[in-house]
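Supplementary notes for students who missed Thursday's class. We covered one full example, reproduced here. Read the sequence, then the structure, then the short commentary at the end.
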Amino acid sequence: MHEREREVLGWVEFGEASRELAGAVLAAGFAPDVVVAIARGGLLPAGAIAYALGTKAVGTLNVEFYTGIDARRADPVVLAPLLDTSELAGLRCLVVDDVADTGETLALVQRLIAAHCTQVRTAVLYAKPHSIVDPDFVWRRTALWITFPWSAQPPVTVAGLGLGEQA
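Structure (token representation):
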């Protein structure tokens, strides 16, 4: 298998991108009462954007769609633990994810949240041209596979740390 060209996001650029997205949200006149992260990829962007906006209410919705590089389920699936949507009534919500690739995950979460909030907007670091959703706020558009700083390395293992088994 040959190495494909990739979009690579570093930690410093991630911080700048998060602040730029927060600025775009405010410039559009949207002041979210709550930021909802789509876990796992949206956890860090949502936290960074919530801090930049000064929004203290942050929730998460766990959705699984990708099972590997270019491998995904037929449809995104909401996983436990579930977000208590009864607490969202009457609020303005910003839904955040790392990327709108197919857009299926973002569309699902947007529909779920819109059933409870008065206003829902979406923000992503990256949007792909084939996404079925055009997010309200996008830092960068690309057709390339994206390497994020939080997922660039394989998971940490005890064997990988050279610690051996612990009693």
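Commentary. The domain at 6-161 is CATH 3.40.50.2020 (Rossmann fold). The two ends are 40 Å apart (CA to CA). If anything here is unclear, bring it to office hours.
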